[in-house]
Design a protein that fits this description.
It is a single chain. It contains 27 helices and 21 strands. By secondary structure, the chain is an alpha/beta fold. An eight-stranded parallel beta sheet has the order 1-12-11-10-9-8-6-2. Bound molecules: glutamine and zinc ion (ZN). The site of glutamine has 13 residues, from loops. Residues 432, 602, 642, 644, 666, 727 line the site of zinc ion (ZN). Zn(2+) binds at residues 642, 644, 666, 727.
């Protein structure tokens, strides 16, 4: 039996981010909807053609989305919140954009739907909203239209649908509470209609994504799979598709389902394929996700060949595929001109991954793996590359003992020393680090990068911006100042560029949400710090003022989570290496007279594994990495950390274990509700609950800020409260920043006067 290969989905943004540009231009009213539709059509056609040319047997259709594929599913089901519906009562592209962004070229603006992380990736989906008694109907034919489009182009396709159970799982109930699982019976008829329509078009296999199956699901939800798939059976063949982790723990449920195949992620799951093969019905198609859809590394195809060959004889129907959709990987390595050949030979982006699938399926079908050896050679050569291994890093790491991650004294003692050193007023005011990244600042950095100005000009320019930021802060009367981060383009990239062990791509964009893309650095080897990174600018800023200037670092877990990690060592090892490198930065900042140092960890929660049973292990090493980074500080050096909006209640013990002297968090939008977790936990150290939302240009009034602070004081003793915005100010303009901070300082002064 021939082994087929397939991808679970392809990046939709386009190599030059064509979709982003077309979307944004349409939203801004600068181009027509026809132009946007045409860009989408071109991209789909190009991506199918490219995958086919690379040797992919079955092309995914339905992986394209105008904003997000969960949102596409909502539209398909006619699940449009009342506030986003248009007057005509039909669903159109602007309806989709109103749900996603709160506004579109047509229709009335209304609050956008919530967005959240897609499993444990950095992709964000639009959270479906469910209301009691709501109706569903097939309202959006995008999938069928795209199937027609691909068929007209003569492609051999495999439509992709987000499965009904995962869809419900990912959504949220609005208004009167009820069990959203009860809606399953109402959405299944729409799925049936879609599957019927696909069957009519001659589609054989449908990839039905149910990644929720890798989670630890409540029994009722597991049961729901049975009724759902009983209802969907009998139209097209269904490939039940799981990814991001293993499914073995739910295999008893899975094997009873009336589907015709199962896809498992062998990269992020640890499923035993021999056992899986034995336990699954003999006539099922087994699709093995062997090419990592979420990272940039070339696969060791020789190794896969050896692993898969024995299975080939045992399973009637076997496919190989990407572990998950290639949505999470950059598109094409071949356009990278700045990576050296050695490093380039270690990588595979989406198109190269397609080629890997083809190479591997060919080798298996021809029963000959020799062609794979050339492909795998660089993977093997890398194991001995000097670019990867740095003996000094390994030795240092091995020498680390528990005491290195322990501050010298407990919080009480430190707090006393810090009070004496800084003598800050009650309700001390500060900011989170960045100040507006003006056009001037951006072009200065860009000119330097392009080489149009030299290092001296660049540094003079940055110094000017720092001076301006410090002056502004002094005028405003803030208590703890920052240098403003003018030299940083991005909080992770900046550190990556100054650390050994990282490389950067020119076009390695991946979609984060909607039209937003990120270009994560790649961690290729042991991480070390060739020289101090932030010290010069921090020292300069401190020289301009008598107020304390806070040094600003991005923490090890965040740098790890927002990069493509290497895969030959654990995430824990990478985090520890980064922590050690930044530990030296803390020591150097201290030596340079910087008494307050902030280590940002906005991604701490993001790094959590999908299954709660694995949380404890992650949190332990993540917290340890932060502590290793910070604990070199003397008692009278004040360590701050910052986290953006996140749920704290179930990780409170770990937040406390960070043992930062001060934590600043985003709270204004939750009306200080987030502090409840800190109160209940009796969080012992200082907290700066953000008092205004930096995502909005609105200037908060003094009264409003005061009211929020008083609310905070009902939960946390005043002696341990700080006053600061929710997050960094880099996306804001100076005018609103100045006004907002002035009001913030006045609010703090008013409260001081009352003590
Ligand atoms: N120090 C960073 C800034 O102010 C923090 C950003 C973040 O939390 N994402 O920009
Ligand atoms: Zn933040």
């Amino acid at each position: 039996m021939t082994i087929l290969n397939h991808t679970l989905g392809f990046p939709r943004i386009g190599l030059r981010r064509e979709l982003k540009k077309a979307q944004e231009s349409y939203w801004a009213g600068n181009s027509t909807q026809e132009a946007l539709l045409a860009t989408g059509r071109e991209l789909r056609a190009r991506h199918w053609q490219q995958q086919q040319a690379a040797g992919v047997d079955l092309l995914p259709v339905g992986d394209f989305a105008w904003y997000d594929h969960v949102l596409t599913t909502s539209l398909m089901l006619g699940n449009v919140p009342a506030r986003h519906q248009n007057k005509a009562g039909n669903v159109d592209l602007d309806t989709l954009f109103r749900i996603a962004r709160g506004r579109a070229p047509t229709g009335e603006p209304a609050a956008a739907a919530e967005m959240t992380k897609w499993f444990n990736t950095n992709y964000h989906y639009m959270v479906p909203e469910f209301t009691r008694g709501q109706q569903f109907s097939l309202s959006w034919h995008q999938l069928l239209d795209e199937v027609d489009e691909a068929l007209a182009l003569g492609h051999k396709i495999k439509p992709v649908l987000l499965g009904p159970v995962t869809y419900l799982w990912l959504g949220k109930v609005k208004g009167e509470s009820f069990d959203r699982l009860s809606l399953l019976q109402d959405i299944l008829p729409v799925y049936q209609q879609v599957l019927d329509a696909l069957a009519q078009r001659g589609v054989e296999w449908v990839q039905i994504d149910e990644p929720a199956l890798v989670l630890e699901l409540p029994q009722a939800w597991l049961e729901a799979f049975k009724s759902a798939y009983a209802a969907l059976n009998g139209r097209c063949k269904l490939l039940l598709t799981t990814y991001f982790d293993s499914v073995s723990h739910n295999l008893d449920t899975v094997r009873q389902l009336p589907v015709q195949g199962l896809h498992v992620d062998l990269i992020h799951g640890r499923d035993d394929i021999v056992a899986l093969n034995q336990q699954l019905p003999a006539d099922w198609l087994l699709s093995l996700g062997v090419i990592n859809g979420r990272n940039v590394w070339r696969a060791d195809l020789t190794q896969w060949f050896e692993r898969l060959q024995p299975l080939q004889a045992q399973r009637k129907q076997l496919w190989i595929g990407s572990s998950c959709s290639l949505l999470h990987s950059p598109i094409d390595l071949s356009v990278e001109t700045r990576l050296d050949e050695e490093v380039k030979s270690w990588f595979a982006f989406a198109l190269q991954k397609c080629a890997e699938l083809a190479l591997l399926s060919n080798a298996l079908n021809n029963n000959d793996g020799t062609a794979l050896e050339t492909w795998s050679a660089p993977v093997r050569a890398r194991r001995h590359s000097g670019r990867v291994h740095n003996a000094a890093v390994g030795e240092r790491l091995a020498g680390i003992t528990a005491k290195e991650s322990q501050r010298h004294s407990d919080y009480q003692t430190r707090a006393a020393a810090q009070r004496q050193r800084f003598n800050l007023p009650a309700w001390p005011t500060t900011t989170i680090g960045s100040f507006p990244q003006t056009h001037d600042i951006r072009s200065l950095r860009l000119d330097f990068k392009k080489g149009t100005i030299d290092g001296n000009h660049y540094r003079t320019g940055i110094a000017e911006h720092i001076k301006q930021a410090v002056n502004e802060q002094e005028q405003l009367g803030l208590d703890v100042l920052v240098h403003g981060e003018a030299e940083r383009n991005d909080m992770v990239e900046y550190f990556g560029e100054h650390l050994e062990g990282f490389v950067f791509t020119q076009n390695g964009w991946v979609q984060s949400y909607g039209s937003r893309c990120v270009k994560p650095p790649v961690i290729i080897g042991d991480v070390s710090r060739p020289q101090p990174i932030t010290v010069e600018w921090a020292k300069y800023a401190q020289s301009l003022t008598d107020k304390p200037v806070k040094g600003m670092l991005t923490g090890p877990v965040t740098i790890l989570c927002w990069s493509f990690p290497r895969e030959d060592v654990t995430r824990e090892t990478i985090a520890r290496q980064i922590a050690l490198a930044l530990r030296d930065e803390v020591a150097d900042l201290e030596k340079a007279g910087i008494g307050i140092i902030q280590i940002d960890e906005p991604a701490l929660r993001e790094g959590l594994p999908l299954r709660q049973s694995e949380w404890a292990a992650y949190l332990e090493w993540a917290v340890e990495a932060f502590r290793l980074n910070a604990a070199v500080a003397q008692d009278d050096t004040q360590i701050h950390t910052h986290m953006c909006y996140c749920e704290f209640n179930d990780i409170m013990a770990s937040i406390a274990a960070l043992d930062a002297d001060v934590i600043t968090i985003e709270t204004s939008r939750s009306d200080m509700e987030l502090l409840e977790s800190f109160e209940e936990f009796a969080y012992p150290n200082e907290i700066g609950p953000g008092v205004y939302d930096i995502h909005s240009p609105n200037v908060p009034s003094v009264e409003w800020i005061e009211a929020l602070l008083l609310k905070a004081a009902r939960r946390i003793p005043v002696e341990r409260l700080w006053v600061n915005p929710d997050c960094g100010l880099k996306t804001r303009g100076w005018t609103e920043t100045r006004q907002a901070l002035a009001n913030m300082v006045t609010a703090a002064q008013n409260l001081r006067a009352r003590i």
